[in-house]
Write a sequence for this structure.
């Protein structure tokens, strides 16, 4: 019998308990042994819950109970989760978590403790909610060298962009609907400013390239500057704007990584990912492009990933099969100044002829775009691949003849 | 040190050896031990191969060598592979295979032997080539009850349909290009008649529902009757025609399963899967729809899945972690007469008014379609969900007033 503790009884925590008891019998068959949840940690009271006898308020009860060998941390944040998870692993208990902030900030350290203590630290639910992606990359694509990984990793921003693209709705209005539907928080900054996506691409990049990438080293932009005009221009050239987190192995062993809104061709498997759905594209040297698609958040999808990790942890007691990546100086993270990609630019010219001359001189492969009700002095175009420094220098020259209204990187996935 | 034998040095076999030696160092790290290929079985001579010392022509050398604990079977077919794999498992060796025919025909038996002998039988490469799907369903979606599974599982037919849809090319011409490019065999029947898709959906259904479904019990239609006219009508209502294998859990515990060309709405994640790509949609009760996309065939993608299974087998020696499903009477496979779905119908009327009256009486939710150069006496429509018996009865009544030129089932994925 494997005894489990669930830390936190919020949305994911209550979903975890629900999915666990709903499928208990089949889960036990898959784990090859009996399973039960012994404790649920929450500071609140749940006197009406059918599980009310399991609730405790003191983590030490769980930590000091040798019967508990698997802990599911679904509190979120770092304040409580980090010391709880660290001490649990140090006490020789396996931990599974849905907490991307924890894994992105402390993954290397926690994985090392798990390895040392011969227990497991699993976090399938931390990226892509219910989409299997961490374990498949780790165990199915291991015969590949992963060259690139890119994803639509945040459902809230993808919902907002989908509303803008499909319904011609402005950002503020789309955000309000997302909030009304419970997809976006009252303070939506973690989503719309790209921080949530940043944590997830850090986890994926650490996994794919074997070295921990910390969020503070990743160039991160959100979607708040994307306008309906940008959406319309991109529509005119069969492209969509998506918030993308991407990481790429460069030839010298460095990693290029960033989070930003990106123009994506309609043929891309990422362009058709709409509403709150997520998708992760993995480019392997043997397998080519593989894409994992599904619901990236939500109570039951995320809980199902947590419960699946609980079963894996129960099945592999006394063997550390969780992955590892190294902690290391962030010198392998290439400066974002050197990031290279194509670009979409929108410009309001004071002197149109002069602006066009600068564009001709500074950019190559320029394709001009148009939209309905396009002002006479507006210019919009997509230009070939350039690095950030060159783009910034070109835009500065262009600014002598008007105002840069928008610039969105264009990616080729 | 784990010693491996590769049975068969064709496309997948030589790819397996290539990927293995290319990534040997990282694979050993992942397996936690040294690995080497000791034998390659092939009746042909490969005197110029760098691996020429490993070639043997007699399977018994491999079978009787106790050093060999993992065997990769990539011969294909049943004639040699079935006795080889069976005797290898019985001798206590783990087996990995890319052979869908073997798994679809003998999976339950071979899995039972593996379990009994405490070894593993893995077959990630048998469905979806390089796309991780078998292991993710088995180990990541285990907290779900899988309700439905559907996929574009054959790259050759998807390439042909993509040519018809995108380039307005007829079936014969598209098939010829597929043959010239090496995507289709000289005798293309296993692909275009749906048999390859049938084997794959049988494997997926057996895995998802826990009972072996045999190909001979699955209604299977290919794409040879799909016309450009059908493609055009479907385009007019924002749909695509794809060859789909699908299986669904019914309320009474039966399984509905079939292989046929299907009309799919453009918004579906399956509609945008083009050329030789494959995609598998899994509908779980907790996670909702999850889609796995990538190259479903080809030397290196398939080989990478075989090599990944080799590493898993090496890592889990002396523990049987491979899945199981039961062999059982096929009474749980629902008669295809009861299969229910929407339908696209194309009809050449001798008496148009009479035909329209029959359509009105026999079908519901009829949406008439049109195309360029549509003959006056032609009728095309999509109608609401009906079971096979009702559709066949309605089409028979309709036939009194002309000829049914086409009928394609419409699915809602």
């Amino acid at each position: 019998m494997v005894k489990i503790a669930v830390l936190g009884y919020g949305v994911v925590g209550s979903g975890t308990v629900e999915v666990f008891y709903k499928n208990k019998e089949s889960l036990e068959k898959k784990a090859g042994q009996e399973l039960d949840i012994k404790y649920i940690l929450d500071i609140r009271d749940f006197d009406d819950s059918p599980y009310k006898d399991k609730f405790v308020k003191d983590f030490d009860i769980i930590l000091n109970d040798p019967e508990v060998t698997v802990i599911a941390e679904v509190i979120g944040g770092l304040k409580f989760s980090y010391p709880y998870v660290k001490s649990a692993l140090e006490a020789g208990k396996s931990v599974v978590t849905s907490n991307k902030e924890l894994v992105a900030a402390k993954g290397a350290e926690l994985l090392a403790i798990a390895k040392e203590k011969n227990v497991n630290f699993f976090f399938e639910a931390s990226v892509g909610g219910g989409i299997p992606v961490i374990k498949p990359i780790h165990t199915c694509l291991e015969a590949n060298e992963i060259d690139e990984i890119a994803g639509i990793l945040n459902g809230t921003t993808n919902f907002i962009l989908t509303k803008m693209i499909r319904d011609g709705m402005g950002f503020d209005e789309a955000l309000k609907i997302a909030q009304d539907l419970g997809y976006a928080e009252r303070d939506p900054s973690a989503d719309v400013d790209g921080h949530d996506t940043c944590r997830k691409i850090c986890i994926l990049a650490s996994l794919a390239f074997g070295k921990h990438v910390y969020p503070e080293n990743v160039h991160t932009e959100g979607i708040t500057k994307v306008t309906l005009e940008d959406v319309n221009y991109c529509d005119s050239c069969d492209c969509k704007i998506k918030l993308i987190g991407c990481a790429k192995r460069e030839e010298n062993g460095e990693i290029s990584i960033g989070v930003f809104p990106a123009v994506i061709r309609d043929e891309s498997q990422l362009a058709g990912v709409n509403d709150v759905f997520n998708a992760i594209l993995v480019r392997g040297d043997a397998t080519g492009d593989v894409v994992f698609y599904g619901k990236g958040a939500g109570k039951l999808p995320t809980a199902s990933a947590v419960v699946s990790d609980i079963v894996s942890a129960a099945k592999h007691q006394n063997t550390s099969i969780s992955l590892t990546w190294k902690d290391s100086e962030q010198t392998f993270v290439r400066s974002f100044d050197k990031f290279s990609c194509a670009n979409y630019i929108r410009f309001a010219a004071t002197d149109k002829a002069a602006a066009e001359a600068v564009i001709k001189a500074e950019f190559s492969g320029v394709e001009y775009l148009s939209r309905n009700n396009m002002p006479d002095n507006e210019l919009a175009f997509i230009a070939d691949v350039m690095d950030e420094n060159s783009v910034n220098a070109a835009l500065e020259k262009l600014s002598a003849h008007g105002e840069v209204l928008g610039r969105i990187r264009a990616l080729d996935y």
